[in-house]
Amino acid sequence: MTSPNRVYFPKIFPGKVSEQNKRAIDWGKYNLVAYGSHSYVVVVSPELRIVQTLDEHRAHICAVKWAKMDIDHRDNQKGFQMQLASGDKGGTIIIWDVVEGNVITTLASPEQKAGVMEIQWHPTVYSVLVSLYDDGVFACWNLITCQKNWKISLPATSLGFCFNPFDLENVCAPQSTGQIVFVLDFSIDRAPTQIENKYRLANKSSGKGSNELLQMKFSETSKNLVYFLLSREILVFDLYFQQVITSIVLERQRSSFQDVLLCWDAPGLLFTIHQVFHHSSYS
Length: 283
Prior knowledge:
Layout: E1 25-27, E2 33-37, E3 40-44, E4 50-54, E5 61-66, E6 71-73, E7 79-81, E8 83-88, E9 93-97, E10 102-107, E11 116-121, E12 128-133, E13 137-142, E14 147-153, E15 162-164, E16 167-174, E17 179-183, E18 195-200, E19 204-206, E20 209-211, E21 213-218, E22 225-230, E23 233-238, E24 243-249, E25 257-262, E26 270-274, E27 279-282
Antiparallel strand pairs: 1-2, 2-3, 3-4, 5-8, 6-7, 8-9, 9-10, 11-12, 12-13, 13-14, 15-16, 16-17, 17-18, 19-20, 21-22, 22-23, 23-24, 25-26, 26-27
């Protein structure tokens, strides 16, 4: 049986990333970072050594997400699978066996022309992947049948979505307008019907232009705590008290935020990705 500690042999050494790859990055539990570089998925070690490249997409990669659980095929001798999902601007999603560099499953619909905006593995049902597309289509995929369980339409202004880890029926989708759309009855078996707008963040101006809402993430360790990523500020918001409890304001000379990565085993630590592709850490 192979293991996550094996030696990898990348097939391709990619160049610089594209603007279209700007949110395609994820940090996995084996301390490996996966990111999009043009139409390639690149996996790097903490020492920034390229350990794997994945090449089957035919459009720019715009979303990547590590599976939360690996598959160990001890009975049928297929070996260890470290799985990763990636989505592209053509609307195609691929599930990868990163260890072997092989495609496990391709998810695509002829009628789906918009690009993939966000993908998330279901937190407890590992054969389910949830996706959001640029046109607002929100879909739940069965990875065994490679078919959609359902799909609905959210506003086309959606910026992404995230599960509430303490209430998996609750999914939030921040909007470019500053509104937060809540899906209150998420299920893998039936399409949601309870969808509400609950909050609105006003876009504030800063010394370097508009401070627009980019992203929202739930804390994995603190109930009711969410992080709102704006282009020049991070707001830590308590849903129970419905107020901001702290904020991180970006220094004037720094380039704007692009993404935020939370550490589940270090609740007070977060990493940010900036527009010029450098990173910062805050604690």
